[in-house]
Amino acid sequence: MEEGCLAGISPQEAEEWTWGETAAAVRAHRRRTRERGQMLSVIAARAAERAAQCLAGERLPPVYEHFPFWTEDEVRALEVERYRQIMQRHAAAGVRREEG
User: Fold this and answer.
1) DSSP at 17
2) Residue 28 in contact with residue 7, Cβ under 8 Å?
3) 71: left (phi over 0), alpha (psi -120 to 50) or beta
4) Would you state the torsion angle of the CA atoms of residues 43, 46, 48, 53, taken in this order, to the nearest 10 degrees?
5) Who is most buried in 9, 14, 21, 84, counting CB within 10 A?
6) C-alpha distance from residue 97 to each of 30, 81, 91, 92, 100 (Å)
7) H helices within 17-99, ranges in order?
8) 49/77 Cα distance (integer angstroms)
9) What is the C-alpha radius of gyration for the chain, rounded to an integer number of angstroms?
10) What is the pTM of this model?
11) 11-14: long-range contacts (C-beta < 8 A, 24 or more apart)?
12) What region does 49 belong to: left with phi over 0, alpha with psi -120 to 50, or beta?
């Protein structure tokens, strides 16, 4: 009962569920908790690495290359935005391509 409540099952529901249903909910809760902890540890390690690179004066890679949790659509949108900003800086600086 206690494990079920920790997994988000109300005491009233826990009395109505079978042992197998409650055990499955507890296992799922433990798996979600473990996976969240694993993702947070990756984030912490990568953040420390980025901080060290910054302090060492190294150029930082784009955040989506460093952290593994971006979807392809999000990466594409960030790359488009990055290139748009580059093009705007070139246009603002008056950079022209010479025609050969």
Assistant:
1) S
2) yes
3) beta
4) -150
5) 9
6) 58, 22, 11, 14, 9
7) 19-55, 63-66, 72-93
8) 25
9) 24
10) 0.60
11) none
12) alpha
By residue count, the chain amounts to 100
Task: Tell me the per-residue pLDDT of 22-55, one tens digit each, with 9 for 90 and over.
Answer: 889 899 999 999 999 999 999 999 999 999 999 9
pLDDT of residue 97: 59
Q: What SS3 state is found at 67?
A: coil
Mention every residue, 6+ apart, whose C-beta is less than 8 A from residue 79: 62
In contact, 64 and 77? CB cutoff 8 Å: no
39/33 Cα distance (integer angstroms)? 10
Task: Give which of 34, 40, 41, 62 is closest to 50, Cα–Cα.
Answer: 62
Tell which residue, 69, 51, 68, has the closest CA to residue 60.
51
Map tokens 């042992």 to a residue.
Answer: 19
Q: What angle do CA 31, 50, 42 make, to 5 degrees?
A: 10
Q: Residue 9: what pLDDT?
A: 87
